[in-house]
Amino acid sequence: MIQKTGPRRQGPRPAARLRPLDRLPRHRPPCSRAATSSAPPRGTPPGPRVPALHRSHQRHHGLGAGTGELLGRLRRATGAEAYHTAYRDGLITVVDTTAPVTDTAHPFTPGPEDRAHATAHGKALLAALPRPLRRRYLAEHGMARFTERTITSAERFEAEVDRVRGQGFAVSVGEADLAYTCLAVALPERGDGIVHALSVSLPTAGFGRRQGEIRAALTRAVPDFPALPES
Fold it and tell me: How many CB atoms lie within 10 A of CB 150?
């Protein structure tokens, strides 16, 4: 005899398993490389928040109007775009520039710098670091090739670091972009782990005959860099 069965009664569902705190997704700091992976390609019209983000970068590094004024004087003295760049907590950031912050076609814009090994400001900053920190930075960020002049090996970069330290300034001739050459000097350290640099960029074609003039202008600008508050 077949016994009829009614619809199976379902008991209470088991409680959802809670994820341990150490497995929950964590928010990345705003200056991490991953935070910039969704940045629009060059040439995309900038969003309305670009100036606000630029000011945020400046506040993060304790900077105000004095730095912008110094960069403006440096641009007038050299006729080249001027930049302030900083190394902090394992990241290199273009903090300020005389180029319009909304000009996304410009090769060096405010924000995290992912081509430090190929730029003069990156070389100057990395040369100022102890060797273990420099090697760690290059291992974490890589040494991608951007032009045929880009240094892509750690051994060659260490030789470049020796050259930068010996002459007191760094040069990048078409290493990040063949059309541009950059020259940079690192600023005296404050002992807080943050390193700052001043730099300029100009078309490669005109750099050879103006190198001495531009280097002298950068050297004169270093003592005028605004005193920075302790971070």
Answer: 16
